[in-house]
Amino acid sequence: MERHTIITVKDLVKQYGDFTAVKGISFEVYENEIFGLLGPNGAGKSTTLEIIETLREKTSGHVTVDGFDLDKAPDNIKKIIGVQLQSAGYYPNLNLTELIALFSGLYNRPVDAKDLLARFNLEDKARAKFKELSGGQKQRFSIATTLINRPKIIFLDEPTTGLDPQARRNLWELIQQVRAQGTTVVITTHYMDEAEFLCDRCAIVDKGEIIALDSPDVLIDKLVAGGFERKKEVKKANLEDVFLHLTGRELRDQ
Ligand code: ADP
After folding, report:
1. Is 3.40.50.300 the CATH number for 5-247?
2. CA pseudo-torsion sign 120, 55, 204, 233
Protein backbone atom coordinates (compact mmCIF):
# COMPACT_ATOMS: atom_id res chain seq x y z
CA MET A 1 0.00 0.00 0.00
CA GLU A 2 1.23 3.48 -0.90
CA ARG A 3 1.91 5.41 2.31
CA HIS A 4 1.99 9.16 2.60
CA THR A 5 4.80 10.53 4.76
CA ILE A 6 3.71 13.14 7.34
CA ILE A 7 6.97 13.58 9.31
CA THR A 8 10.46 13.44 7.83
CA VAL A 9 13.53 13.59 10.06
CA LYS A 10 16.86 13.65 8.23
CA ASP A 11 20.34 13.50 9.79
CA LEU A 12 19.07 15.06 13.03
CA VAL A 13 21.80 15.99 15.50
CA LYS A 14 21.44 17.49 18.98
CA GLN A 15 24.41 18.46 21.09
CA TYR A 16 24.23 19.59 24.68
CA GLY A 17 27.64 21.22 25.08
CA ASP A 18 30.22 18.51 24.29
CA PHE A 19 27.68 15.73 24.60
CA THR A 20 25.89 14.50 21.48
CA ALA A 21 22.47 13.23 22.57
CA VAL A 22 21.11 12.63 19.04
CA LYS A 23 23.65 11.41 16.50
CA GLY A 24 22.30 12.05 13.02
CA ILE A 25 19.09 10.06 13.02
CA SER A 26 16.73 9.77 10.05
CA PHE A 27 13.22 8.36 9.94
CA GLU A 28 9.78 8.95 8.50
CA VAL A 29 6.35 8.73 10.08
CA TYR A 30 3.46 7.82 7.77
CA GLU A 31 0.14 9.55 7.83
CA ASN A 32 -2.39 7.89 10.15
CA GLU A 33 -0.04 5.34 11.65
CA ILE A 34 0.80 4.81 15.31
CA PHE A 35 4.56 5.22 15.40
CA GLY A 36 6.56 4.27 18.51
CA LEU A 37 9.88 5.58 19.73
CA LEU A 38 11.34 2.97 22.06
CA GLY A 39 14.62 2.95 23.91
CA PRO A 40 16.31 3.04 27.31
CA ASN A 41 16.29 6.21 29.42
CA GLY A 42 18.73 8.75 28.02
CA ALA A 43 18.55 7.34 24.46
CA GLY A 44 17.43 10.68 23.02
CA LYS A 45 13.71 10.06 22.49
CA SER A 46 12.37 13.15 24.29
CA THR A 47 15.01 15.35 22.70
CA THR A 48 14.00 14.10 19.24
CA LEU A 49 10.28 14.55 19.92
CA GLU A 50 10.69 17.99 21.45
CA ILE A 51 12.65 19.15 18.39
CA ILE A 52 9.84 17.93 16.10
CA GLU A 53 7.31 19.61 18.42
CA THR A 54 9.22 22.92 17.96
CA LEU A 55 9.95 23.02 21.71
CA ARG A 56 13.72 22.52 21.45
CA GLU A 57 16.41 23.80 19.05
CA LYS A 58 18.25 21.24 16.94
CA THR A 59 21.98 21.42 16.30
CA SER A 60 21.71 20.26 12.66
CA GLY A 61 19.60 18.19 10.34
CA HIS A 62 16.31 18.65 8.61
CA VAL A 63 12.75 18.14 9.83
CA THR A 64 9.50 18.55 7.91
CA VAL A 65 6.02 18.04 9.33
CA ASP A 66 3.10 17.79 6.90
CA GLY A 67 5.18 19.60 4.29
CA PHE A 68 6.24 22.43 6.63
CA ASP A 69 9.96 22.95 7.13
CA LEU A 70 10.77 23.25 10.85
CA ASP A 71 13.31 26.01 10.16
CA LYS A 72 10.97 28.09 8.04
CA ALA A 73 7.47 27.47 9.35
CA PRO A 74 7.50 26.35 13.00
CA ASP A 75 4.23 28.22 13.64
CA ASN A 76 2.48 26.21 10.94
CA ILE A 77 3.76 23.02 12.57
CA LYS A 78 2.49 24.14 16.00
CA LYS A 79 -1.00 24.54 14.56
CA ILE A 80 -1.29 20.98 13.28
CA ILE A 81 0.15 19.08 16.24
CA GLY A 82 -1.20 18.17 19.67
CA VAL A 83 1.20 17.77 22.57
CA GLN A 84 0.42 16.42 26.05
CA LEU A 85 1.07 18.95 28.81
CA GLN A 86 2.84 17.97 32.00
CA SER A 87 0.32 18.00 34.89
CA ALA A 88 1.78 21.27 36.12
CA GLY A 89 0.29 22.90 33.03
CA TYR A 90 -3.28 22.52 34.28
CA TYR A 91 -4.54 25.42 36.37
CA PRO A 92 -5.39 23.79 39.70
CA ASN A 93 -8.55 25.75 40.41
CA LEU A 94 -10.29 25.21 37.10
CA ASN A 95 -12.53 22.23 36.49
CA LEU A 96 -12.28 20.07 33.36
CA THR A 97 -14.99 21.96 31.48
CA GLU A 98 -13.28 25.27 32.29
CA LEU A 99 -9.88 23.91 31.26
CA ILE A 100 -11.28 22.79 27.90
CA ALA A 101 -12.86 26.23 27.44
CA LEU A 102 -9.49 27.82 28.24
CA PHE A 103 -7.61 25.73 25.65
CA SER A 104 -10.40 26.19 23.17
CA GLY A 105 -9.99 29.97 23.58
CA LEU A 106 -6.20 29.78 23.26
CA TYR A 107 -6.47 27.83 20.03
CA ASN A 108 -9.44 29.85 18.86
CA ARG A 109 -11.28 26.60 18.15
CA PRO A 110 -14.80 26.05 19.46
CA VAL A 111 -15.11 22.69 21.24
CA ASP A 112 -18.08 20.82 22.68
CA ALA A 113 -16.57 20.07 26.10
CA LYS A 114 -19.31 17.61 27.06
CA ASP A 115 -18.79 15.65 23.90
CA LEU A 116 -15.00 15.57 24.26
CA LEU A 117 -15.23 14.43 27.90
CA ALA A 118 -17.73 11.72 26.94
CA ARG A 119 -15.33 10.39 24.28
CA PHE A 120 -12.76 9.85 27.02
CA ASN A 121 -15.17 8.42 29.62
CA LEU A 122 -14.94 11.58 31.71
CA GLU A 123 -18.51 12.85 31.45
CA ASP A 124 -19.00 12.43 35.22
CA LYS A 125 -15.92 14.55 35.91
CA ALA A 126 -16.98 17.68 34.03
CA ARG A 127 -17.04 19.71 37.29
CA ALA A 128 -13.98 18.05 38.88
CA LYS A 129 -10.57 19.70 39.06
CA PHE A 130 -7.55 18.07 37.40
CA LYS A 131 -5.89 17.40 40.77
CA GLU A 132 -8.99 15.48 41.91
CA LEU A 133 -8.66 12.90 39.13
CA SER A 134 -7.14 9.42 39.37
CA GLY A 135 -3.98 8.63 37.37
CA GLY A 136 -5.97 7.04 34.54
CA GLN A 137 -8.42 9.93 34.41
CA LYS A 138 -5.56 12.45 34.31
CA GLN A 139 -4.00 10.63 31.37
CA ARG A 140 -7.34 10.40 29.55
CA PHE A 141 -7.92 14.11 30.09
CA SER A 142 -4.46 15.08 28.92
CA ILE A 143 -4.93 13.06 25.72
CA ALA A 144 -8.37 14.64 25.25
CA THR A 145 -6.81 18.12 25.47
CA THR A 146 -4.31 17.28 22.71
CA LEU A 147 -7.28 17.00 20.34
CA ILE A 148 -8.79 20.44 21.01
CA ASN A 149 -7.00 22.14 18.11
CA ARG A 150 -7.99 19.22 15.84
CA PRO A 151 -4.37 18.29 15.13
CA LYS A 152 -3.19 16.01 12.35
CA ILE A 153 -0.58 14.48 14.64
CA ILE A 154 -0.52 13.94 18.41
CA PHE A 155 2.56 13.19 20.49
CA LEU A 156 2.10 11.00 23.57
CA ASP A 157 5.01 10.65 25.98
CA GLU A 158 4.68 7.49 28.11
CA PRO A 159 0.90 7.84 28.33
CA THR A 160 0.27 4.74 30.46
CA THR A 161 3.12 4.88 32.96
CA GLY A 162 1.84 4.11 36.46
CA LEU A 163 -1.64 2.98 35.43
CA ASP A 164 -3.37 -0.23 36.52
CA PRO A 165 -3.95 -2.89 33.83
CA GLN A 166 -7.61 -1.93 33.31
CA ALA A 167 -6.79 1.76 32.82
CA ARG A 168 -3.89 0.87 30.53
CA ARG A 169 -6.06 -1.28 28.25
CA ASN A 170 -8.76 1.40 28.25
CA LEU A 171 -6.20 3.98 27.15
CA TRP A 172 -4.97 1.66 24.39
CA GLU A 173 -8.52 1.52 23.04
CA LEU A 174 -8.86 5.31 23.21
CA ILE A 175 -5.57 5.78 21.35
CA GLN A 176 -6.77 3.37 18.66
CA GLN A 177 -10.02 5.33 18.38
CA VAL A 178 -8.11 8.60 17.97
CA ARG A 179 -6.15 7.02 15.14
CA ALA A 180 -9.30 5.54 13.59
CA GLN A 181 -10.61 9.09 13.33
CA GLY A 182 -7.66 10.04 11.12
CA THR A 183 -5.00 11.33 13.53
CA THR A 184 -1.37 10.23 13.31
CA VAL A 185 -0.01 9.16 16.72
CA VAL A 186 3.64 9.31 17.81
CA ILE A 187 4.15 7.60 21.14
CA THR A 188 6.99 6.77 23.51
CA THR A 189 6.69 3.90 25.96
CA HIS A 190 8.84 1.61 28.05
CA TYR A 191 6.21 -1.15 27.82
CA MET A 192 7.00 -3.49 24.97
CA ASP A 193 3.58 -5.18 25.16
CA GLU A 194 2.06 -1.75 24.64
CA ALA A 195 4.28 -1.04 21.63
CA GLU A 196 3.47 -4.47 20.22
CA PHE A 197 -0.27 -3.90 20.65
CA LEU A 198 -0.46 -0.29 19.45
CA CYS A 199 2.36 0.50 17.05
CA ASP A 200 2.24 -0.06 13.31
CA ARG A 201 5.98 0.59 13.28
CA CYS A 202 8.51 1.44 15.91
CA ALA A 203 12.04 2.78 16.00
CA ILE A 204 14.38 1.47 18.67
CA VAL A 205 16.71 4.26 19.75
CA ASP A 206 19.91 3.65 21.70
CA LYS A 207 22.61 6.17 22.60
CA GLY A 208 21.30 8.72 20.13
CA GLU A 209 21.01 6.33 17.17
CA ILE A 210 18.20 4.35 15.60
CA ILE A 211 19.29 0.74 15.76
CA ALA A 212 16.11 -0.83 14.33
CA LEU A 213 12.95 0.40 12.66
CA ASP A 214 10.10 -1.80 11.49
CA SER A 215 6.72 -3.22 12.46
CA PRO A 216 6.76 -5.11 15.78
CA ASP A 217 5.94 -8.29 13.87
CA VAL A 218 8.90 -7.98 11.51
CA LEU A 219 11.28 -7.02 14.33
CA ILE A 220 10.25 -10.14 16.26
CA ASP A 221 10.47 -12.37 13.16
CA LYS A 222 13.96 -11.08 12.41
CA LEU A 223 15.10 -11.89 15.95
CA VAL A 224 13.63 -15.39 15.74
CA ALA A 225 15.15 -15.95 12.28
CA GLY A 226 18.52 -15.17 13.85
CA GLY A 227 18.10 -18.21 16.10
CA PHE A 228 16.77 -16.49 19.22
CA GLU A 229 14.74 -18.63 21.59
CA ARG A 230 13.14 -17.70 24.89
CA LYS A 231 14.71 -19.40 27.89
CA LYS A 232 11.39 -20.21 29.44
CA GLU A 233 8.63 -22.13 27.72
CA VAL A 234 5.91 -19.69 26.67
CA LYS A 235 2.64 -20.29 28.49
CA LYS A 236 -0.76 -19.66 26.96
CA ALA A 237 -1.40 -16.81 29.40
CA ASN A 238 0.64 -14.38 31.43
CA LEU A 239 0.20 -12.84 34.87
CA GLU A 240 -1.62 -9.85 33.43
CA ASP A 241 -4.19 -12.24 31.93
CA VAL A 242 -4.63 -13.74 35.41
CA PHE A 243 -5.04 -10.28 36.95
CA LEU A 244 -7.60 -9.16 34.38
CA HIS A 245 -9.46 -12.47 34.54
CA LEU A 246 -9.77 -12.19 38.32
CA THR A 247 -10.47 -8.47 38.65
CA GLY A 248 -12.37 -7.85 35.41
CA ARG A 249 -11.70 -5.46 32.58
CA GLU A 250 -13.99 -2.62 33.60
CA LEU A 251 -12.40 0.65 34.69
CA ARG A 252 -12.21 1.17 38.46
CA ASP A 253 -11.57 4.87 38.70
CA GLN A 254 -14.87 6.20 37.38
P1 ADP B 1 15.13 9.85 26.61
O2 ADP B 1 13.91 10.64 26.32
O3 ADP B 1 15.38 8.76 25.60
O4 ADP B 1 15.18 9.32 28.01
P5 ADP B 1 16.51 12.40 26.47
O6 ADP B 1 16.29 12.94 25.12
O7 ADP B 1 15.70 12.96 27.59
O8 ADP B 1 16.40 10.81 26.43
O9 ADP B 1 18.05 12.58 26.87
C10 ADP B 1 19.10 12.16 26.01
C11 ADP B 1 20.41 12.54 26.66
O12 ADP B 1 20.58 13.95 26.63
C13 ADP B 1 20.55 12.13 28.13
O14 ADP B 1 21.87 11.71 28.33
C15 ADP B 1 20.25 13.40 28.87
O16 ADP B 1 20.93 13.43 30.11
C17 ADP B 1 20.78 14.46 27.92
N18 ADP B 1 20.02 15.72 28.07
C19 ADP B 1 18.70 15.88 27.89
N20 ADP B 1 18.34 17.16 28.05
C21 ADP B 1 19.47 17.85 28.35
C22 ADP B 1 19.77 19.21 28.62
N23 ADP B 1 18.82 20.15 28.61
N24 ADP B 1 21.06 19.54 28.88
C25 ADP B 1 22.03 18.59 28.86
N26 ADP B 1 21.82 17.29 28.60
C27 ADP B 1 20.56 16.91 28.35
Report:
1. yes
2. negative
User: How far from 126 is each of 64, 68, 94, CA to CA, in Å?
Assistant: 37, 36, 11
Which protein residue's CA is at the shortest distance from atom 12 of ligand 1? 21
Q: Which among 167, 173, 172, 169 has a CA at the least distance from the CA of 253?
A: 167
In this structure, what is the dihedral angle of CA atoms 192, 198, 200, 204, given to the nearest 10 degrees?
A: -30
Q: Report which ligand 1 atom has the smallest distance to the Cα of 40.
A: 3
- Angle, CA 196 vertex, CA 201 and CA 244 arms, to 5°: 155
Distance (Å) from CA 13 to ligand 1 centroid: 13
Largest CA distance in the chain: 57
Q: Whose CA is nearest to atom 22 of ligand 1?
A: 16
Ligand 1 atom showing the smallest separation from residue 47 Cα? 6
Q: How far is the CA of 212 from the centre of ligand 1 (A)?
A: 20
Whether residue 234 has pLDDT greater than 80: no
Does the Cβ of 39 fall within 6 Å of ligand 1?
Answer: yes
State the closest ligand 1 atom to the C-alpha of 41, by its place in the atom list counted from 1: 4
Give the pTM: 0.93
Taking the domains of the chain in order of start, what are their residue ranges?
A: 5-247
**Residue 95 CA: distances (Å) to CA of 91, 136, 172:** 9, 17, 25
> Which of the 8 DSSP states describes residue 199?
-
Q: Is the CB of 43 under 6 A from ligand 1?
A: yes
- pLDDT tens figures, 196-227: 999 999 999 999 999 999 999 999 999 989 98
DSSP 101-132: HHHHHHHT----HHHHHHHTT-GGGTTSBGGG
